[in-house]
Amino acid sequence: MIGISSKIIQPSIRELLSYATSIEKVDQAYIMYIESHNQSLFGYKNGKEDISGCIGVEIKANNCEIRHIAVSPEERGKGIGGKMIEFIIDKYSLTNITAETDKDAVEFYRNLGFKITSLGEKYPGIERFLCERIIEITHLSNQRIDD
User: Fold this and answer.
1) In a 10 Å sphere around its CB, with 0-12 CB exposed, 13-18 middle and 19+ buried, how is residue 117 labelled?
2) Membrane-crossing residues (predicted)?
3) Can you give the pTM of this predicted structure?
4) How far is CA 10 from CA 15, 18, 56, in A?
5) How many domains does the chain have?
6) pLDDT at 144 over 70
């Protein structure tokens, strides 16, 4: 995983962000990550030149909201999304991580141990879901126990 901090957006990052947000909002989202003190964007490199996944997060103490997560179509199904989430949990010693998503990504989050709650029809004709994972840190062994 690499932190993305360049003011110039790489083509591979632009493409990945376009999978997670509308194409019209890609540049705005990227600038938000570069200029914000509590939001960060990371890229996943799997031994290749190009970045094949990205995750953008907003950190508040030991809590995190996943703002964007995407994996290139040819790399999907290889566990990259889960690896990126675990990286974020470990990097920031999180106790809680959340994401808001549509129906298409619910199973992805459920398979990673997130509890899913419907937020109802947040936009006309579009149901949204809150995905939340509580991570309990044990003081004796430094191992996490997920609820």
Assistant:
1) exposed
2) none
3) 0.84
4) 9, 12, 15
5) 1
6) no
